Amino acid sequence: MVSKKDIQFIKEQIEFHNEPVLSLYADVNPSKPENARYGWKIRIKNSLKEETIPDYIKNKVFEVVELEKPSAKTMAIFAAEDFIERYDLNIELPVVDVANGKIDLSWGKPNAVPLIYAIDEYERTGILYLKKNGWHFYEFFLGELIEINETFNSVKNSEWEDLETYLEDVTNDFLKYRVPTHPDKFPRRVDAFVIRSYKHLAGLIEKIIYSRDIKRLIFLGPDEHTKFFSQYLSKSTRNMIAAFAGDLPVQDASPVRISEKVNNILEKIERENELKLVNNISNSDYVSGIENTLEALQMGRVYDLIVPWSLNKKVFSCKDDYLSSSEEKVKSVCGDENIKVFELKKIIIDLSINYGARIEFVRGEAEQKLLKDFDGLAGLLRW
Predict the structure, then answer these.
(1) Mean pLDDT along residues 31-47
(2) Which of 94, 182, 48 is nearest to 360 (CA)?
């Protein structure tokens, strides 16, 4: 997992490091056929050989890719004369072109922006797993799952056993007294031990949630237990609940099984939110198309920039930093000299930051709708 120490180093050292720095992103997902038999490693080495980069930098990278086989989706490597860092990430990054086995490589200004964007924008998710032999709490961030063992350290095994016994009684009473007119109503009397235990456990969980800046919650376990317990959380914590995901098919599910289930839920939620965002563009004051959106963005009019995950457009700029998708337009403003060409994907995050706009990347159906109905880029307007 990318640790807090890693995040601090990326933001404070790599992003602002003196040029030149090698920035390399590669798709290393082992489930893809093109990555079988170390295909990713061959592509990294071939890409480096084609570039005019000092041999000592290349050799550093060759050494670090040999360290261990990644089990991640994306590998990010940053190297300069005085450092080299490799990050194996279980996520895909926006505006990084690694489709079909490509290597996204640059030598010069550090290209840490896609990774920093992911660190800042991916929400930390807490997973509460209500198991019979004791509850577990996990943090899911950047595609990685870790258990927060200290969450329930103060709870004794005997307390878990007692709670399970009382819960069976509560559930049995619920089924016994359930009537057609009140199908979801628990018996009036819930044992004081259960109430006291749930309030205590809720306090332990909320302490961890706020100390680790967790923004979303997913519950695993029998619905009758997870939904009952959720009532004892504070209102602000209940508002974080993204899903009651039901129980797992086996009691002692591996972290891999838990991670897969959680990741599928979060992916579904993200795609639904992105589609809702794109569907609602027309309900707001907006601008669309590459040229019109860039123009409005540079005027400070855009507060929310909606961008396709795969952005493959070139833009032109001059010494006055005026930016346009039309080379002729830039020449008419600045003259024929010092015209620079940029890949929009390389600068779009910086542009949004510089002009005070939030940036939203969309994939799947939302991306296709953005490309078809809004010419590939859209901005929601302040005025």
Answers:
(1) 90
(2) 94
Q: Which two tokens stand for residue 284?
A: 């707001």
Q: What is the number of helices (H) and of strands (E) in the chain? A: 13, 16
d(CA 365, CA 223): 31
Of the candidates 336, 160, 332, 140, the one whose C-alpha atom is nearest the C-alpha of residue 243 is 140
- Token pair 């609940």: residue: 241
Residues 6 or more apart whose Cβ sits within 8 Å of residue 335: 318
Provide CB contacts within 8 A for 87, sequence distance 6+: 2, 6, 10, 75, 76, 77, 115
Interval 201-222: pLDDT, tens:
999 999 999 999 999 999 999 9
Contact by Cβ (8 Å): 24, 105: yes
**93: CB partners within 8 A, 6+ apart:** 25, 74, 76, 114, 115, 117, 118
- Judge contact between 269 and 243, C-beta under 8 A: yes
Question: Which ranges in the chain belong to alpha helices (H)?
Answer: 4-9, 39-49, 55-65, 113-121, 157-177, 192-211, 223-230, 235-238, 255-279, 290-298, 327-334, 344-354, 364-373
Identify the CA nearest to 169 among candidates 218, 234, 228, 123: 228
Q: Closest Cα to residue 89, out of 3, 191, 178?
A: 3
Which DSSP category does 11 fall into? I
Residue 141, classed as helix, strand or coil, is strand
Strands across the sheet with 323-324, in order?
A: 323-324, 314-317, 340-343
pLDDT tens digit sequence for 299-338? 999 999 999 998 889 999 987 788 999 999 988 888 777 8
Could you give the CA distance from residue 252 to residue 163 in angstroms, rounded to a whole number? 19
pTM: 0.85
Check if the beta carbon of residue 297 is closer than 8 Å to that of residue 381: no
